[in-house]
Amino acid sequence: MKLLSFRTGIIALIWTVSIASLAIPSAAHPSSSGLRTHHSSLITHHSLLSPDPQTAPTLLKASIAVRANRLKRYWKSPDTDDYWSWLPEVSFTVLGPISTGSAFFIDFTNEAGAPWYTVECATESIDATRWLTIGTPAITTHIDKRTTLATGTFGFTIRLKNELSGANDKLFSGKYKVTKFHIGNDLPAFKNQFEYVVDQDWNLPIGYLYFNMPADPQMPPLKVAMWFRGELDNTKLAAYLFYKGKQIGSTKEQTGSAGYDAAIFPNSHEGNTRWERWAFSWGQVRGWNANTSSANNTSELFFMATNPGEYEVKVLRDGDLARSAKFNVGPDGRLVDNGITQKSNLGGLAMILPVKVIGAGDGQWDPNAWKDAFYGNPLTGFVAP
């Protein structure tokens, strides 16, 4: 795993995910299928993603992250201190190949739907075995003539243009909602200090289920990722895995783990304006066993492929139940696929896992935001529990 830090407010981890046709192979038929990944979180080895060579770049739609990058001055009043304004910041990941002469562009529209500005993103050519994280160019000053004070719903389109071939392909169009809140006291010096926030609540009921193939390709551990609102640490969260109502794993045990692998937040850290994605695993719970060696001691491991039925993940936040998510393994030893990832054409993802948000730990949030998930590209067949 590799930790990446984009600019202020977006932190992501590259993690490799086994989609493997969403199948848990039996010991006699180990998986030869590819590996896929998720959101600001992407891949370590693209060559493992698919058994077939990629012939065109693939934008991982769930890797797209949008935030408001707030600057300290407003260009229409350049001599006024602490007149905060903002402009959008976008990052995403693409699987190769990206041919010579290609460049990614992002077209932004304002709150009225009119053209705002376009940026060209630094792009390098890569082959089909690699991936590339693309982002809007860094802003290195406190004032920029593209910033705005407006709030509301804004739009963006990601294009891939190639001057050599003449191609100009639209890969993604989305929208995002921006709100603001005041920072500081009521003195005149602070009257223009507003922090700007892109709403990410749509993430909360959407989870991800996958197998950690790099950790052990023959007996891959199960991993589940979920989003939470607020700043957390692993003393505040504990995830428990149940099989047919019986607990089989805990992140509080020595073999379990819990850690956040992505975070989106504004420039300041005030208010409940931070979203974090946490990944949970239980070292003794594995997808399958493809290692049939007699010297392989697996007596303390739980293999899902030989235990069909209902599974449930429950997460406690500060000791209170905060999340619940269920999935099933069929009699054939395979995950029962809900088909959401494929139907929604997300591009290389683990299985989407509907998550029930419980309790008040996330603070005030919009329970209907999932209807506009992935920045205005809602999931096909998904309903929040």
For the CA atoms, what is the radius of gyration? 22 Å
Looking at this structure, what is the CATH superfamily of the largest domain? Immunoglobulins
User: Which consecutive residue ranges, at least 5 long each, have pLDDT under 50?
Assistant: 1-8, 10-51
The N- to C-terminal Cα distance equals 31 Å
Shape: globular
- The number of distinct helices, counting runs of at least 4 residues, comes to 2
Number of domains as seen in the coordinates: 2
Would you count the extended β strands for me?
Answer: 23
Please give the CATH class of the largest domain.
Mainly Beta
| Biggest sheet statistics | 8 strands, mixed
What is the succession of H and E elements? EEEEEEEEEEEEEEEEEEEEEHEEH
Overall pLDDT level: 86
Helix content: under 10%
> Could you say which structural class the secondary elements and strand pairing correspond to?
mainly beta
CATH names the topology of the largest domain as Immunoglobulin-like
Which architecture of the largest domain would the CATH scheme give at its second level?
Sandwich
Structure, briefly:
The protein is mostly beta strands and 385 residues long. It has helices spanning 340-343, 373-376; strands at 2-5, 10-14, 17-18, 35-36, 58-71, 85-95, 102-109, 115-121, 131-135, 152-162, 168-182, 194-198, 206-211, 221-229, 237-243, 246-250, 256-264, 275-286, 302-303, 309-317, 320-329, 351-354, 356-357.
